[in-house]
Amino acid sequence: MTNTTDTTAPTTQLPSGPPSVPPTGLPSGPPAGFAPGPPPERATPLEPQAGRHLTENGKRITEGVKALHSRIRELAPEAEKQGKLSQEIIQALTDIGLYRATAPIEYGGYALGARDIAEISTELGKADAAASWTFLVATSLRMVSTFPQPLVDDLYSRFDGHVGPLAAGGSTFAAITGKAARVEGGWTVEGKWTYASGNHDAAWLFGGAAWSDGERSGHAIILMDPAELERLDDWHVSGMAASDSNSIVTTKPIFVPDHHFVDMAALPFYMDHGADRFTGLAYETKVRASSTTASIVLISAIVGMAEGAFELFQDLAPKRKPFSPPYDSIAEMASSQVAAAKARALINLAKSTVLWHADEIDHLATLREDYTAGEEAQLTVDLAMAGQFAKDAIDIILRLVGSSAMALSSPLQRFSRDAAVILSHGALRLESVAEVSGRRLLGQPPFDMFAAGLQNKATQK
Fold first, then answer.
1. Distance in angstroms (rounded) separating the CA atoms of residues 89 and 75
2. pLDDT category of residue 28 using cuts at 50, 70 and 90
3. 125, exposed or middle or buried, with CB in 10 Å at 0-12, 13-18, 19+?
4. Which of 122, 162, 430, 431 could form a disulfide with 304 if both were Cys (CB 3.0 to 4.6 A apart)?
5. Are 171 and 195 in contact (CB under 8 A)?
6. C-beta of residue 290 within 8 angstroms of C-beta of residue 362
7. Residue 143: CB partners within 8 Å, gap ≥ 6?
8. How many whole angstroms from its chain centre is CA 386?
């Protein structure tokens, strides 16, 4: 029997051309008198990238920093000579609550997360890098506030009424630290602690110590009273001169009680359990993410410095006549225009990287989760690379302005010098941190690291 069923697909009838009448509501064409041209410009400024973890306290501090920009810049040359920020600026930053940013809410702080911290540090960087560095010192409270309760109670006993960071520290993860020997009720400590940023204005000082107790040994972080230590005048550097990063030393052995001594082997446990005692994103963040927040502060500062340099250049370029070629202003030079766009792109890429990872850290905190070792290692490289992008943007601007930007009174040369010193920090050296991640990426045995480019001191003897 012949199958007469038609198995071919039905044919769709296509229209022979556009409809003679447009659908209701759509324009039939441009209006009479229409002149072709570019799309219309938006009348309102583009809002900054939003972050769902930004807080009112964080926004208030950021606005307070903006109001201080001109005064911080005005006093920056003298701050470099003195080796630290002026007392006027320290007081002003205290007044806006900067030094409470990451302190626990339960002790009168704000426990801010990484995105708030990034925004604040960027604004500080626009004014001067040393102002961002004092903020880095303040954010160390995220870590030390998770230490055992007797130490934390002593720490915050000096909080109210104090002007400046509550605590500073030096040589906590460094190769060379102080030494501590076990005695009854505590430890005898002596030594030298380098790079003790913020030490002149701190109520307490932390330092690393190699400890010994009979046949046992390890590394610890100890809390010390500044009155028992001597400050050395040894911070004479090409950049970050106002960061107050001189060394501190003991002139004789000092006694540190047991409750001011924290074995670094227990550090991950304390940092991972901050949320058991305190509320707020700063204490919901786990150990790797929390440690990486220090890099967020530093790279945000360089991004802010690059943005500050770019704003200065935009103001200067139309007013400044170039040495050569014979244009009436730097702004008219094609080479300047191309370079300015490249510098802006580098800044945008750097800032996007920082804010992406800051938001990621806060998101992990809400989940009570942490980075894997491999994720954290590559994140550190991302941030170091972002810092280099921002530094490159500063140097492009410096070349465009020329030799006048090298005057010590110019913020431009200070931005470049300070950025170079920040990027020389052991935890941000691009090639070094890239090797740590690259070993993992290529299947090689990983190094024993703590977090954020720092070696695991707890396992070193």
1. 9
2. low
3. buried
4. 122
5. yes
6. no
7. 267, 271, 290, 291
8. 11
Q: Which of 115, 111, 53 is nearest to 357 (CA)?
A: 115
Omega before 27 cis (within 30°)?
Answer: no
**Rounded mean pLDDT, 427-436:** 93
Q: Percentage of the chain with pLDDT > 70?
A: 90
Question: What confidence category does residue 342 fall into, taking pLDDT thresholds of 50, 70 and 90?
Answer: very high
Residue 359 corresponds to which amino acid? D
Average pLDDT for the chain: 91
> C-alpha distances in angstroms, 234 versus 117, 251, 288, 401, 457?
30, 16, 32, 33, 26
| Alpha helices in 191-266, H assignment, sequence order | none
pLDDT at 449: 79
The Cβ-side half-sphere exposure at 385, using a 13 Å CA radius, reads 13
Q: How many CB atoms lie within 10 A of CB 236?
A: 8
Element (DSSP H or E) covering residue 212: strand 204-213
Query: Across the chain, how many H-helices and E-strands are there?
Result: 13, 12
In this predicted structure, the answer to whether residue 397 has a pLDDT above a threshold of 70 is yes
54, 355 Cβ separation under 8 angstroms: no
* Torsion of the alpha carbons at 17, 18, 19 and 22, rounded to the nearest 10: 180
Residue 19 pLDDT level (bands cut at 50, 70, 90): low
Virtual CA dihedral for 374, 345, 296, 298, nearest 10 degrees?
Answer: 120
What distances in angstroms separate CA 377 from CA 60, 62, 434, 452, one per listed residue?
A: 33, 29, 8, 7
Burial label for 48, CB within 10 Å (0-12, 13-18, 19+), is exposed
φ and ψ at residue 279, rounded to 5 degrees: -100, 165
Nearest to 114 by CA among 344, 347, 345, 383: 383
Phi and psi angles of residue 166, each rounded to the nearest 5 degrees, phi first = -65, -40
